[in-house]
Predict the 3D structure of the following.
Amino acid sequence: MLQLLNNYLIIPLFIKIILILFSIITFGFVLFLLIIFAIGLFNYNKAIKKPKNENFIPRGTIKKVAVIGAGSSGITAAKEAIERGFEVTIFEQTGEIGGNWYFRESESHSSVYRSTFINTSRQLMSYSDFPMSNQLPTYPHHKQIIKYFYDYAKHFGVYEKIKFHTQIIDIKPLDKENNLSKWKIYYRNSTGTPLYLQPIDKLDNNCFEETFDAIMVCNGHHSVPRLPPKFTGQDEFEGQIIHSHQYKDQFNPINCTDKRVVVVGIGNSGVDIANELSRCAKQVYLSTRTGAWIFPKFIRGYAIDHILAETRMLRMLLPEFIMNSNVIVGKLESEVEKHQGSMKSWGLDPKVRITQTHPTVSHELLHRIGNGTIIVKKNIKKFYKDKVEFEDNSIVRADAVIFSTGYYIDFRFIDRNLLRIEDNNVRLYKFIFDPNLPKTIAIIALIQPLGAIMPIAEMQSRFTTHIWNGDIGLPSIDNMNKEIDRKLKKIRKRYLNRARHTIQVDFGSYMDELAAAIGCIPSIFSNLKILRYLLFSPIWPVQYRLNGPSKWKGAAETLKTLYYSAFFERPEREAGSNWIDEENQ
Protein backbone atom coordinates (compact mmCIF):
# COMPACT_ATOMS: atom_id res chain seq x y z
CA MET A 1 0.00 0.00 0.00
CA LEU A 2 2.83 2.38 0.88
CA GLN A 3 4.47 1.55 -2.40
CA LEU A 4 1.27 2.45 -4.31
CA LEU A 5 0.98 5.70 -2.35
CA ASN A 6 4.57 6.57 -3.11
CA ASN A 7 3.99 5.82 -6.78
CA TYR A 8 0.96 8.12 -6.76
CA LEU A 9 2.86 10.91 -5.06
CA ILE A 10 5.56 10.92 -7.71
CA ILE A 11 3.01 11.13 -10.56
CA PRO A 12 3.45 14.50 -12.32
CA LEU A 13 0.99 17.17 -11.30
CA PHE A 14 -0.63 17.51 -14.72
CA ILE A 15 -1.38 13.75 -14.75
CA LYS A 16 -3.03 14.09 -11.34
CA ILE A 17 -5.16 16.96 -12.62
CA ILE A 18 -6.22 14.89 -15.63
CA LEU A 19 -7.12 11.94 -13.38
CA ILE A 20 -9.14 14.15 -11.05
CA LEU A 21 -10.95 15.82 -13.97
CA PHE A 22 -11.67 12.42 -15.52
CA SER A 23 -13.11 11.20 -12.21
CA ILE A 24 -15.27 14.32 -11.87
CA ILE A 25 -16.53 14.04 -15.47
CA THR A 26 -17.24 10.32 -15.07
CA PHE A 27 -19.06 10.92 -11.80
CA GLY A 28 -21.01 13.79 -13.33
CA PHE A 29 -21.97 11.72 -16.37
CA VAL A 30 -23.14 8.82 -14.20
CA LEU A 31 -25.06 11.25 -12.00
CA PHE A 32 -26.65 12.81 -15.10
CA LEU A 33 -27.73 9.38 -16.35
CA LEU A 34 -29.17 8.53 -12.95
CA ILE A 35 -31.12 11.80 -12.87
CA ILE A 36 -32.45 11.22 -16.40
CA PHE A 37 -33.36 7.66 -15.45
CA ALA A 38 -35.14 8.87 -12.29
CA ILE A 39 -37.08 11.51 -14.24
CA GLY A 40 -37.97 8.97 -16.92
CA LEU A 41 -39.05 6.39 -14.36
CA PHE A 42 -41.11 9.00 -12.52
CA ASN A 43 -42.83 10.09 -15.74
CA TYR A 44 -43.35 6.47 -16.80
CA ASN A 45 -44.92 5.57 -13.46
CA LYS A 46 -47.04 8.71 -13.69
CA ALA A 47 -48.13 7.77 -17.23
CA ILE A 48 -49.14 4.23 -16.26
CA LYS A 49 -50.74 5.19 -12.97
CA LYS A 50 -54.35 4.14 -12.86
CA PRO A 51 -56.45 7.33 -13.00
CA LYS A 52 -58.92 8.31 -10.32
CA ASN A 53 -62.41 7.87 -11.69
CA GLU A 54 -65.52 9.57 -10.41
CA ASN A 55 -68.43 8.18 -12.38
CA PHE A 56 -69.08 4.45 -12.60
CA ILE A 57 -71.87 2.81 -14.60
CA PRO A 58 -73.75 0.34 -12.37
CA ARG A 59 -72.96 -3.22 -13.39
CA GLY A 60 -75.76 -4.74 -15.46
CA THR A 61 -77.09 -1.39 -16.71
CA ILE A 62 -75.85 -2.01 -20.24
CA LYS A 63 -76.81 -5.30 -21.85
CA LYS A 64 -77.53 -4.76 -25.52
CA VAL A 65 -74.75 -3.21 -27.64
CA ALA A 66 -74.74 -2.17 -31.31
CA VAL A 67 -71.51 -2.06 -33.29
CA ILE A 68 -71.59 0.05 -36.45
CA GLY A 69 -69.20 -1.36 -39.03
CA ALA A 70 -67.51 -4.73 -39.46
CA GLY A 71 -64.13 -3.41 -40.50
CA SER A 72 -60.91 -3.95 -38.60
CA SER A 73 -62.12 -1.86 -35.65
CA GLY A 74 -65.70 -3.16 -35.67
CA ILE A 75 -64.79 -6.83 -35.40
CA THR A 76 -62.46 -6.26 -32.44
CA ALA A 77 -65.00 -3.96 -30.75
CA ALA A 78 -67.61 -6.70 -31.09
CA LYS A 79 -65.19 -9.35 -29.83
CA GLU A 80 -64.42 -7.36 -26.68
CA ALA A 81 -68.12 -6.63 -26.07
CA ILE A 82 -68.98 -10.31 -26.45
CA GLU A 83 -66.24 -11.25 -23.97
CA ARG A 84 -67.68 -8.77 -21.43
CA GLY A 85 -71.02 -10.58 -21.71
CA PHE A 86 -72.97 -8.04 -23.77
CA GLU A 87 -75.57 -8.99 -26.35
CA VAL A 88 -74.01 -7.72 -29.59
CA THR A 89 -75.37 -6.84 -33.03
CA ILE A 90 -73.01 -5.64 -35.78
CA PHE A 91 -74.33 -3.54 -38.66
CA GLU A 92 -72.31 -3.73 -41.87
CA GLN A 93 -73.43 -1.93 -45.03
CA THR A 94 -71.50 -4.20 -47.43
CA GLY A 95 -71.55 -7.97 -47.80
CA GLU A 96 -68.06 -8.56 -46.40
CA ILE A 97 -65.96 -7.85 -43.34
CA GLY A 98 -62.75 -5.85 -43.41
CA GLY A 99 -64.00 -2.36 -44.23
CA ASN A 100 -61.63 -0.49 -46.53
CA TRP A 101 -59.21 -3.44 -46.50
CA TYR A 102 -61.61 -5.37 -48.74
CA PHE A 103 -60.81 -4.53 -52.35
CA ARG A 104 -63.73 -3.48 -54.55
CA GLU A 105 -63.67 -2.71 -58.25
CA SER A 106 -66.23 0.08 -57.90
CA GLU A 107 -66.48 3.14 -55.66
CA SER A 108 -69.47 1.72 -53.81
CA HIS A 109 -67.48 1.80 -50.57
CA SER A 110 -64.03 2.83 -49.40
CA SER A 111 -61.45 0.24 -50.30
CA VAL A 112 -57.75 -0.29 -50.79
CA TYR A 113 -56.35 -0.34 -54.32
CA ARG A 114 -55.56 -3.63 -55.98
CA SER A 115 -51.83 -3.63 -55.24
CA THR A 116 -51.99 -2.55 -51.57
CA PHE A 117 -49.54 -4.03 -49.09
CA ILE A 118 -49.51 -2.89 -45.48
CA ASN A 119 -46.79 -0.44 -44.46
CA THR A 120 -46.76 -1.47 -40.80
CA SER A 121 -45.21 -4.82 -39.90
CA ARG A 122 -47.56 -7.71 -39.19
CA GLN A 123 -46.09 -8.05 -35.67
CA LEU A 124 -47.20 -4.53 -34.78
CA MET A 125 -50.50 -4.74 -36.65
CA SER A 126 -51.80 -7.96 -35.05
CA TYR A 127 -54.52 -8.03 -32.43
CA SER A 128 -53.06 -8.76 -29.01
CA ASP A 129 -54.42 -12.28 -28.49
CA PHE A 130 -54.53 -13.44 -32.11
CA PRO A 131 -51.09 -12.99 -33.71
CA MET A 132 -50.64 -13.22 -37.45
CA SER A 133 -48.98 -16.39 -38.69
CA ASN A 134 -45.19 -16.44 -38.92
CA GLN A 135 -45.71 -17.83 -42.41
CA LEU A 136 -46.95 -14.43 -43.54
CA PRO A 137 -44.44 -11.91 -44.91
CA THR A 138 -43.41 -8.92 -42.82
CA TYR A 139 -45.70 -6.66 -44.89
CA PRO A 140 -48.66 -8.77 -46.10
CA HIS A 141 -50.91 -8.07 -49.10
CA HIS A 142 -54.46 -6.86 -48.47
CA LYS A 143 -55.89 -10.28 -49.39
CA GLN A 144 -53.84 -11.85 -46.60
CA ILE A 145 -55.05 -9.18 -44.18
CA ILE A 146 -58.68 -9.88 -45.09
CA LYS A 147 -58.10 -13.60 -44.50
CA TYR A 148 -56.66 -12.72 -41.08
CA PHE A 149 -59.73 -10.62 -40.22
CA TYR A 150 -62.03 -13.42 -41.36
CA ASP A 151 -60.17 -15.98 -39.20
CA TYR A 152 -60.30 -13.59 -36.23
CA ALA A 153 -64.04 -12.97 -36.60
CA LYS A 154 -64.75 -16.70 -36.90
CA HIS A 155 -62.46 -17.68 -34.02
CA PHE A 156 -64.09 -15.31 -31.52
CA GLY A 157 -67.71 -15.80 -32.60
CA VAL A 158 -68.04 -12.35 -34.15
CA TYR A 159 -68.97 -13.32 -37.69
CA GLU A 160 -72.34 -14.80 -36.66
CA LYS A 161 -73.35 -11.48 -35.07
CA ILE A 162 -73.07 -9.44 -38.27
CA LYS A 163 -76.09 -8.07 -40.16
CA PHE A 164 -74.69 -7.62 -43.65
CA HIS A 165 -76.11 -5.17 -46.21
CA THR A 166 -77.60 -2.94 -43.51
CA GLN A 167 -76.91 0.76 -43.70
CA ILE A 168 -77.25 2.98 -40.64
CA ILE A 169 -79.35 6.01 -41.50
CA ASP A 170 -79.68 7.76 -38.15
CA ILE A 171 -79.02 7.25 -34.45
CA LYS A 172 -80.77 9.18 -31.70
CA PRO A 173 -80.44 9.16 -27.91
CA LEU A 174 -83.77 8.56 -26.21
CA ASP A 175 -82.80 11.10 -23.54
CA LYS A 176 -79.75 13.25 -24.35
CA GLU A 177 -79.63 14.66 -20.80
CA ASN A 178 -79.42 11.20 -19.29
CA ASN A 179 -75.80 10.04 -19.00
CA LEU A 180 -76.97 6.43 -19.48
CA SER A 181 -79.43 7.08 -22.29
CA LYS A 182 -80.44 4.25 -24.58
CA TRP A 183 -80.17 4.77 -28.35
CA LYS A 184 -82.55 4.22 -31.23
CA ILE A 185 -80.91 3.08 -34.47
CA TYR A 186 -82.60 3.54 -37.84
CA TYR A 187 -81.32 1.38 -40.67
CA ARG A 188 -82.30 -0.03 -44.04
CA ASN A 189 -81.06 -2.48 -46.62
CA SER A 190 -77.87 -1.14 -48.19
CA THR A 191 -78.14 0.33 -51.70
CA GLY A 192 -74.45 0.08 -52.49
CA THR A 193 -74.20 3.85 -52.96
CA PRO A 194 -71.58 5.46 -50.69
CA LEU A 195 -73.30 7.14 -47.76
CA TYR A 196 -71.48 10.43 -48.36
CA LEU A 197 -73.10 10.61 -51.84
CA GLN A 198 -76.64 10.13 -50.51
CA PRO A 199 -78.99 12.99 -49.54
CA ILE A 200 -79.07 13.96 -45.88
CA ASP A 201 -82.88 13.66 -45.58
CA LYS A 202 -82.97 9.90 -45.84
CA LEU A 203 -85.48 8.45 -43.34
CA ASP A 204 -88.32 6.76 -45.21
CA ASN A 205 -90.84 3.93 -44.96
CA ASN A 206 -88.15 1.38 -45.85
CA CYS A 207 -86.26 2.03 -42.61
CA PHE A 208 -86.16 -0.33 -39.64
CA GLU A 209 -85.55 0.77 -36.08
CA GLU A 210 -84.12 -0.91 -33.02
CA THR A 211 -83.21 0.23 -29.52
CA PHE A 212 -79.86 -0.48 -27.87
CA ASP A 213 -78.35 0.28 -24.48
CA ALA A 214 -75.08 1.42 -26.04
CA ILE A 215 -73.37 1.97 -29.40
CA MET A 216 -69.79 1.50 -30.61
CA VAL A 217 -69.24 3.58 -33.75
CA CYS A 218 -66.60 1.83 -35.88
CA ASN A 219 -67.18 3.14 -39.39
CA GLY A 220 -63.68 4.58 -39.80
CA HIS A 221 -62.54 7.96 -41.07
CA HIS A 222 -61.52 7.15 -44.66
CA SER A 223 -64.87 7.40 -46.41
CA VAL A 224 -65.48 11.06 -47.32
CA PRO A 225 -62.76 12.32 -49.71
CA ARG A 226 -61.20 15.67 -48.90
CA LEU A 227 -60.39 17.82 -51.93
CA PRO A 228 -58.53 21.15 -51.73
CA PRO A 229 -60.29 24.36 -52.81
CA LYS A 230 -60.40 24.60 -56.58
CA PHE A 231 -57.27 25.99 -58.21
CA THR A 232 -57.37 28.76 -60.78
CA GLY A 233 -58.43 27.31 -64.12
CA GLN A 234 -59.33 23.89 -62.73
CA ASP A 235 -62.78 23.90 -64.36
CA GLU A 236 -61.18 24.50 -67.77
CA PHE A 237 -58.85 21.51 -67.46
CA GLU A 238 -59.82 18.93 -70.12
CA GLY A 239 -58.07 15.97 -68.49
CA GLN A 240 -59.55 13.72 -65.82
CA ILE A 241 -59.50 14.62 -62.13
CA ILE A 242 -60.18 12.07 -59.40
CA HIS A 243 -59.49 11.54 -55.69
CA SER A 244 -57.35 8.59 -54.61
CA HIS A 245 -60.51 7.26 -52.94
CA GLN A 246 -61.65 6.31 -56.48
CA TYR A 247 -58.34 4.80 -57.57
CA LYS A 248 -58.28 1.01 -58.03
CA ASP A 249 -55.33 0.36 -60.33
CA GLN A 250 -53.50 1.88 -63.31
CA PHE A 251 -56.49 1.13 -65.54
CA ASN A 252 -59.43 1.92 -63.25
CA PRO A 253 -61.05 4.46 -63.23
CA ILE A 254 -58.45 6.05 -65.55
CA ASN A 255 -56.33 4.12 -68.02
CA CYS A 256 -53.01 5.80 -67.27
CA THR A 257 -50.97 3.90 -69.85
CA ASP A 258 -48.72 6.38 -71.73
CA LYS A 259 -50.44 9.29 -69.97
CA ARG A 260 -48.91 12.22 -68.11
CA VAL A 261 -50.26 12.05 -64.57
CA VAL A 262 -49.98 14.51 -61.69
CA VAL A 263 -50.41 12.98 -58.23
CA VAL A 264 -51.09 15.58 -55.53
CA GLY A 265 -50.11 14.63 -51.98
CA ILE A 266 -47.09 12.83 -50.59
CA GLY A 267 -48.73 10.70 -47.92
CA ASN A 268 -48.62 6.91 -48.11
CA SER A 269 -51.48 6.58 -50.61
CA GLY A 270 -50.16 9.28 -52.93
CA VAL A 271 -46.69 7.75 -52.98
CA ASP A 272 -48.01 4.22 -53.56
CA ILE A 273 -50.14 5.41 -56.48
CA ALA A 274 -47.29 7.43 -57.99
CA ASN A 275 -44.97 4.41 -57.73
CA GLU A 276 -47.48 2.13 -59.43
CA LEU A 277 -48.32 4.54 -62.25
CA SER A 278 -44.65 5.26 -62.95
CA ARG A 279 -44.37 1.75 -64.45
CA CYS A 280 -46.89 2.43 -67.20
CA ALA A 281 -47.44 6.20 -67.49
CA LYS A 282 -45.45 8.37 -69.85
CA GLN A 283 -44.53 10.57 -66.89
CA VAL A 284 -45.64 10.94 -63.27
CA TYR A 285 -45.35 14.24 -61.38
CA LEU A 286 -45.62 14.09 -57.59
CA SER A 287 -46.81 17.42 -56.19
CA THR A 288 -46.18 18.35 -52.56
CA ARG A 289 -46.64 21.48 -50.45
CA THR A 290 -44.16 20.68 -47.70
CA GLY A 291 -41.89 17.92 -48.96
CA ALA A 292 -41.53 14.75 -46.91
CA TRP A 293 -39.29 12.42 -44.98
CA ILE A 294 -39.41 9.02 -46.70
CA PHE A 295 -38.89 6.03 -44.44
CA PRO A 296 -37.72 2.76 -46.01
CA LYS A 297 -39.66 -0.39 -45.18
CA PHE A 298 -36.46 -2.09 -44.11
CA ILE A 299 -33.22 -0.94 -42.50
CA ARG A 300 -30.29 -3.39 -42.45
CA GLY A 301 -32.73 -6.13 -43.41
CA TYR A 302 -35.16 -5.46 -40.54
CA ALA A 303 -38.59 -3.84 -40.60
CA ILE A 304 -38.38 -0.10 -40.00
CA ASP A 305 -40.82 -0.27 -37.08
CA HIS A 306 -38.64 -2.92 -35.43
CA ILE A 307 -35.39 -0.95 -35.69
CA LEU A 308 -36.66 2.57 -34.94
CA ALA A 309 -39.40 1.44 -32.60
CA GLU A 310 -40.09 2.71 -29.13
CA THR A 311 -39.33 -0.04 -26.60
CA ARG A 312 -40.51 -0.37 -23.04
CA MET A 313 -36.97 0.18 -21.83
CA LEU A 314 -36.82 3.48 -23.71
CA ARG A 315 -40.18 4.49 -22.25
CA MET A 316 -38.84 3.77 -18.78
CA LEU A 317 -35.44 5.41 -19.24
CA LEU A 318 -36.17 8.54 -21.23
CA PRO A 319 -38.87 11.09 -20.40
CA GLU A 320 -41.00 12.32 -23.26
CA PHE A 321 -39.31 15.72 -23.48
CA ILE A 322 -35.99 13.95 -24.11
CA MET A 323 -37.51 11.64 -26.73
CA ASN A 324 -38.88 14.69 -28.58
CA SER A 325 -35.75 16.82 -28.10
CA ASN A 326 -33.80 18.23 -31.02
CA VAL A 327 -30.93 15.85 -30.24
CA ILE A 328 -33.05 12.70 -30.54
CA VAL A 329 -35.04 14.03 -33.51
CA GLY A 330 -31.80 14.98 -35.24
CA LYS A 331 -30.41 11.51 -34.61
CA LEU A 332 -33.52 9.96 -36.17
CA GLU A 333 -33.24 12.21 -39.20
CA SER A 334 -29.56 11.29 -39.58
CA GLU A 335 -30.37 7.57 -39.33
CA VAL A 336 -33.01 7.82 -42.07
CA GLU A 337 -30.79 9.89 -44.36
CA LYS A 338 -27.86 7.53 -43.79
CA HIS A 339 -29.90 4.84 -45.52
CA GLN A 340 -31.97 6.99 -47.88
CA GLY A 341 -29.67 9.87 -48.74
CA SER A 342 -30.46 13.55 -48.25
CA MET A 343 -34.16 14.25 -48.74
CA LYS A 344 -33.22 17.58 -50.29
CA SER A 345 -31.05 15.88 -52.90
CA TRP A 346 -34.09 13.86 -54.01
CA GLY A 347 -36.09 17.06 -54.49
CA LEU A 348 -38.28 16.32 -51.47
CA ASP A 349 -36.80 19.07 -49.26
CA PRO A 350 -39.04 18.62 -46.18
CA LYS A 351 -40.12 21.87 -44.53
CA VAL A 352 -40.75 20.15 -41.20
CA ARG A 353 -38.85 17.99 -38.73
CA ILE A 354 -39.23 14.26 -39.08
CA THR A 355 -41.55 13.94 -36.06
CA GLN A 356 -43.86 16.82 -37.05
CA THR A 357 -45.85 14.87 -39.59
CA HIS A 358 -47.22 11.39 -40.14
CA PRO A 359 -44.47 9.21 -41.67
CA THR A 360 -44.50 8.20 -45.33
CA VAL A 361 -43.10 4.69 -45.81
CA SER A 362 -41.87 3.58 -49.22
CA HIS A 363 -39.05 1.32 -50.39
CA GLU A 364 -39.63 2.33 -54.02
CA LEU A 365 -40.16 6.08 -54.34
CA LEU A 366 -36.51 7.16 -54.32
CA HIS A 367 -35.64 4.59 -56.99
CA ARG A 368 -38.45 5.94 -59.18
CA ILE A 369 -37.26 9.51 -58.66
CA GLY A 370 -33.73 8.34 -59.41
CA ASN A 371 -34.66 6.82 -62.76
CA GLY A 372 -36.81 9.80 -63.72
CA THR A 373 -40.18 8.10 -63.97
CA ILE A 374 -41.36 10.28 -61.06
CA ILE A 375 -40.53 13.98 -60.93
CA VAL A 376 -41.17 15.84 -57.67
CA LYS A 377 -42.90 19.21 -58.06
CA LYS A 378 -44.12 21.98 -55.78
CA ASN A 379 -47.79 22.61 -55.02
CA ILE A 380 -50.13 23.31 -57.93
CA LYS A 381 -50.56 26.96 -58.77
CA LYS A 382 -52.83 26.92 -61.82
CA PHE A 383 -54.57 24.68 -64.35
CA TYR A 384 -54.72 25.20 -68.10
CA LYS A 385 -56.65 23.28 -70.73
CA ASP A 386 -54.06 20.53 -70.98
CA LYS A 387 -51.33 21.71 -68.62
CA VAL A 388 -50.61 22.26 -64.94
CA GLU A 389 -48.47 25.05 -63.50
CA PHE A 390 -46.68 24.66 -60.16
CA GLU A 391 -45.58 27.20 -57.58
CA ASP A 392 -42.03 27.19 -58.94
CA ASN A 393 -43.59 28.51 -62.21
CA SER A 394 -42.78 25.31 -64.11
CA ILE A 395 -45.51 24.10 -66.47
CA VAL A 396 -46.08 20.50 -67.60
CA ARG A 397 -48.55 18.77 -69.90
CA ALA A 398 -51.05 16.62 -67.98
CA ASP A 399 -53.71 14.12 -69.01
CA ALA A 400 -54.93 13.34 -65.48
CA VAL A 401 -54.67 14.60 -61.91
CA ILE A 402 -55.14 12.40 -58.86
CA PHE A 403 -55.68 14.19 -55.56
CA SER A 404 -54.42 12.12 -52.64
CA THR A 405 -55.37 14.76 -50.12
CA GLY A 406 -56.95 12.81 -47.29
CA TYR A 407 -60.45 12.57 -45.89
CA TYR A 408 -62.98 14.46 -43.84
CA ILE A 409 -63.93 13.16 -40.43
CA ASP A 410 -67.64 12.69 -40.90
CA PHE A 411 -70.51 10.71 -39.39
CA ARG A 412 -73.47 11.21 -41.68
CA PHE A 413 -75.75 9.16 -39.46
CA ILE A 414 -75.06 11.28 -36.35
CA ASP A 415 -76.79 14.64 -36.02
CA ARG A 416 -74.17 17.39 -36.35
CA ASN A 417 -75.67 19.08 -33.30
CA LEU A 418 -74.86 15.96 -31.29
CA LEU A 419 -71.28 15.31 -32.38
CA ARG A 420 -69.61 18.53 -33.45
CA ILE A 421 -66.80 18.33 -36.01
CA GLU A 422 -65.09 21.50 -37.20
CA ASP A 423 -62.33 21.28 -39.80
CA ASN A 424 -61.56 17.69 -38.77
CA ASN A 425 -61.36 18.68 -35.10
CA VAL A 426 -63.47 16.64 -32.70
CA ARG A 427 -63.36 16.75 -28.91
CA LEU A 428 -63.25 13.23 -27.47
CA TYR A 429 -61.98 12.09 -24.08
CA LYS A 430 -59.27 9.48 -24.72
CA PHE A 431 -60.31 9.94 -28.38
CA ILE A 432 -63.42 7.86 -27.54
CA PHE A 433 -66.07 9.69 -25.48
CA ASP A 434 -67.70 13.06 -26.16
CA PRO A 435 -68.06 14.73 -22.74
CA ASN A 436 -71.35 16.32 -23.81
CA LEU A 437 -73.01 13.08 -24.93
CA PRO A 438 -74.32 10.15 -22.91
CA LYS A 439 -71.50 7.78 -21.98
CA THR A 440 -73.30 5.01 -23.82
CA ILE A 441 -71.81 5.96 -27.18
CA ALA A 442 -68.15 5.33 -27.98
CA ILE A 443 -66.25 6.36 -31.12
CA ILE A 444 -63.70 3.65 -31.89
CA ALA A 445 -60.58 4.07 -34.08
CA LEU A 446 -61.08 7.77 -34.82
CA ILE A 447 -57.34 8.15 -34.40
CA GLN A 448 -54.14 8.43 -36.43
CA PRO A 449 -51.31 6.58 -34.66
CA LEU A 450 -47.59 6.44 -35.31
CA GLY A 451 -48.05 2.70 -35.62
CA ALA A 452 -50.91 0.34 -36.40
CA ILE A 453 -54.53 1.27 -35.77
CA MET A 454 -55.92 -2.27 -35.27
CA PRO A 455 -54.42 -2.93 -31.81
CA ILE A 456 -55.36 0.60 -30.77
CA ALA A 457 -58.98 -0.04 -31.77
CA GLU A 458 -58.79 -3.23 -29.73
CA MET A 459 -57.45 -1.40 -26.67
CA GLN A 460 -60.08 1.33 -27.03
CA SER A 461 -62.73 -1.39 -27.13
CA ARG A 462 -61.34 -3.06 -24.02
CA PHE A 463 -61.35 0.32 -22.25
CA THR A 464 -64.92 1.07 -23.38
CA THR A 465 -66.40 -2.30 -22.44
CA HIS A 466 -64.75 -2.20 -19.00
CA ILE A 467 -66.42 1.18 -18.43
CA TRP A 468 -69.79 -0.11 -19.57
CA ASN A 469 -69.39 -3.17 -17.38
CA GLY A 470 -68.78 -1.00 -14.32
CA ASP A 471 -65.17 -2.14 -13.82
CA ILE A 472 -63.70 1.33 -14.28
CA GLY A 473 -65.23 4.79 -14.31
CA LEU A 474 -64.94 8.12 -16.08
CA PRO A 475 -63.89 11.53 -14.74
CA SER A 476 -66.29 14.44 -14.42
CA ILE A 477 -67.18 16.41 -17.54
CA ASP A 478 -64.90 19.27 -16.41
CA ASN A 479 -61.93 16.97 -15.94
CA MET A 480 -62.57 15.25 -19.27
CA ASN A 481 -62.57 18.63 -21.02
CA LYS A 482 -59.36 19.66 -19.26
CA GLU A 483 -57.60 16.52 -20.47
CA ILE A 484 -58.91 17.04 -24.00
CA ASP A 485 -57.52 20.60 -23.96
CA ARG A 486 -54.13 19.33 -22.81
CA LYS A 487 -53.96 16.72 -25.55
CA LEU A 488 -55.07 19.08 -28.32
CA LYS A 489 -52.52 21.66 -27.18
CA LYS A 490 -49.83 18.99 -27.28
CA ILE A 491 -50.83 17.94 -30.81
CA ARG A 492 -50.82 21.55 -32.05
CA LYS A 493 -47.40 22.14 -30.52
CA ARG A 494 -45.78 19.07 -32.06
CA TYR A 495 -47.41 18.50 -35.45
CA LEU A 496 -47.76 20.48 -38.62
CA ASN A 497 -51.12 22.27 -38.70
CA ARG A 498 -52.94 19.97 -41.12
CA ALA A 499 -56.34 18.27 -41.09
CA ARG A 500 -54.68 14.84 -40.99
CA HIS A 501 -52.91 15.60 -37.69
CA THR A 502 -55.90 16.49 -35.52
CA ILE A 503 -56.18 12.94 -34.15
CA GLN A 504 -52.50 11.99 -34.02
CA VAL A 505 -51.09 9.87 -31.17
CA ASP A 506 -47.90 7.96 -30.35
CA PHE A 507 -48.60 4.24 -30.30
CA GLY A 508 -46.78 3.22 -27.10
CA SER A 509 -47.77 6.10 -24.86
CA TYR A 510 -51.44 5.97 -25.91
CA MET A 511 -51.66 2.20 -25.50
CA ASP A 512 -50.07 2.48 -22.05
CA GLU A 513 -52.50 5.24 -21.11
CA LEU A 514 -55.54 3.07 -21.80
CA ALA A 515 -53.90 -0.08 -20.44
CA ALA A 516 -53.18 1.71 -17.15
CA ALA A 517 -56.88 2.47 -16.74
CA ILE A 518 -57.79 -1.14 -17.50
CA GLY A 519 -55.02 -2.60 -15.36
CA CYS A 520 -53.21 -4.53 -18.10
CA ILE A 521 -49.85 -2.74 -18.17
CA PRO A 522 -47.22 -5.52 -18.36
CA SER A 523 -45.61 -6.05 -14.98
CA ILE A 524 -41.82 -6.13 -14.80
CA PHE A 525 -41.66 -8.30 -11.67
CA SER A 526 -44.17 -10.94 -12.73
CA ASN A 527 -42.51 -11.38 -16.12
CA LEU A 528 -38.87 -11.82 -15.09
CA LYS A 529 -38.49 -14.95 -17.23
CA ILE A 530 -39.27 -12.98 -20.38
CA LEU A 531 -37.84 -9.63 -19.20
CA ARG A 532 -35.42 -9.45 -22.12
CA TYR A 533 -38.24 -9.66 -24.65
CA LEU A 534 -40.51 -7.34 -22.69
CA LEU A 535 -37.97 -4.54 -22.30
CA PHE A 536 -36.10 -4.66 -25.60
CA SER A 537 -38.81 -5.61 -28.10
CA PRO A 538 -40.94 -2.98 -29.82
CA ILE A 539 -44.14 -2.40 -27.87
CA TRP A 540 -46.02 -5.18 -29.59
CA PRO A 541 -49.74 -5.55 -28.75
CA VAL A 542 -49.31 -8.98 -27.13
CA GLN A 543 -47.55 -7.29 -24.19
CA TYR A 544 -50.96 -6.12 -23.01
CA ARG A 545 -52.16 -9.72 -22.55
CA LEU A 546 -49.42 -10.65 -20.04
CA ASN A 547 -51.21 -9.22 -16.99
CA GLY A 548 -54.53 -7.89 -15.81
CA PRO A 549 -58.08 -8.54 -17.03
CA SER A 550 -58.43 -10.85 -20.03
CA LYS A 551 -54.80 -11.91 -19.91
CA TRP A 552 -53.92 -14.63 -22.40
CA LYS A 553 -51.96 -17.72 -21.43
CA GLY A 554 -50.17 -17.75 -24.79
CA ALA A 555 -48.90 -14.17 -24.47
CA ALA A 556 -45.44 -14.88 -23.02
CA GLU A 557 -44.57 -17.54 -25.58
CA THR A 558 -45.94 -15.36 -28.40
CA LEU A 559 -43.81 -12.40 -27.28
CA LYS A 560 -40.73 -14.61 -27.31
CA THR A 561 -41.61 -15.99 -30.76
CA LEU A 562 -42.17 -12.50 -32.15
CA TYR A 563 -38.80 -11.36 -30.84
CA TYR A 564 -36.89 -14.19 -32.48
CA SER A 565 -38.86 -14.14 -35.73
CA ALA A 566 -38.29 -10.38 -36.08
CA PHE A 567 -34.59 -10.25 -35.26
CA PHE A 568 -33.01 -13.70 -35.50
CA GLU A 569 -34.98 -16.48 -37.12
CA ARG A 570 -36.56 -15.57 -40.44
CA PRO A 571 -39.21 -18.27 -41.10
CA GLU A 572 -39.13 -19.90 -44.51
CA ARG A 573 -42.34 -19.47 -46.47
CA GLU A 574 -43.72 -21.27 -49.44
CA ALA A 575 -44.32 -19.02 -52.42
CA GLY A 576 -47.90 -17.77 -52.40
CA SER A 577 -48.73 -19.39 -49.06
CA ASN A 578 -51.66 -17.99 -47.06
CA TRP A 579 -53.13 -16.10 -50.01
CA ILE A 580 -56.88 -16.04 -49.83
CA ASP A 581 -58.69 -17.75 -52.69
CA GLU A 582 -60.99 -15.57 -54.77
CA GLU A 583 -64.05 -17.71 -53.98
CA ASN A 584 -63.44 -17.34 -50.22
CA GLN A 585 -63.24 -13.56 -50.19
